[in-house]
Design brief:
globular
């Protein structure tokens, strides 16, 4: 089985000791995968997750796709760096690669972006709606390609609480609209421990348990 993963630090298994279970390693082991590709990394934005997933699917057809949707207050900018255009991830804490702003004039741009997105509630709501539609496009494409898949929220839901505007994900998204059922909320309320307090990176027991929850959901919904 060929499994493709993408997401942020939670899917990347940030701070987990080498050899300890992660979401990706647990799912791969349970499904006896013989090929595993994980494009998740710490600080990844939804722009990155969506872009790199689409790029991968242009030339590859995995048997199963697992996507951890990240929080909505992140972005991806194209930045000239050492004579090339580079993708840079930005979030409401700090740029992932702060070295890329040296001499580039990006500090004022970033400070303005950060101030606006931290203080303006409509920004988060509009971003959530935007990614609601974009990820549904990805879901539709994977359905068309007949690729089983499962999505989940790492941090926040789509903030679409009126059932009139909620979409049918055909079982492929774990609780897309339910408050408190995101990965970090679920870990906290089930007593799992953060590795570094405040970083929202939970221990390997939490990662393994969440992987089992994803597989149970996929089995129950007939995805696997």
């Amino acid at each position: 089985m060929h499994i493709y993963f993408n997401g942020d630090s939670n899917m990347a298994g940030a701070e987990i000791e080498s050899g300890k279970p992660t979401i990706a390693s647990t799912i791969s082991r349970r499904l006896r995968a013989n090929k595993t590709i994980n494009h998740a990394f710490t600080g990844a934005s939804n722009d990155y997750i969506y872009r790199t997933t689409m790029e991968y699917l242009q030339n590859n057809t995995p048997d199963f796709v697992v996507i951890g949707v990240t929080e909505m207050g992140r972005g991806e900018w194209l930045v000239p760096w050492y004579g090339e255009l580079q993708y840079m991830q930005v979030n409401n804490l700090e740029m992932v690669d702060d070295s890329m702003i040296d001499g580039s004039g990006l500090r004022n741009r970033y400070n303005h972006w950060k101030e606006f997105q931290q203080t303006t509630k409509p920004f988060h709501e509009s971003q959530a709606w935007y990614w609601h539609e974009k990820y549904y496009n990805l879901h539709t494409m994977l359905q068309w390609m007949k690729i089983p898949h499962i999505f989940f929220h790492a941090f926040h839901t789509f903030r679409i609480y009126s059932k009139a505007y909620q979409l049918d994900w055909h079982g492929s998204f774990v609780e897309p609209y339910t408050i408190g059922e995101t990965y970090i909320k679920w870990c906290g309320k089930n007593g799992y421990k953060e590795i570094t307090p405040g970083q929202h990176h939970y221990d390997s027991d939490a990662q393994r348990a969440w992987a089992d929850r994803l597989l149970s959901h996929a089995t129950r919904e007939g995805i696997l």
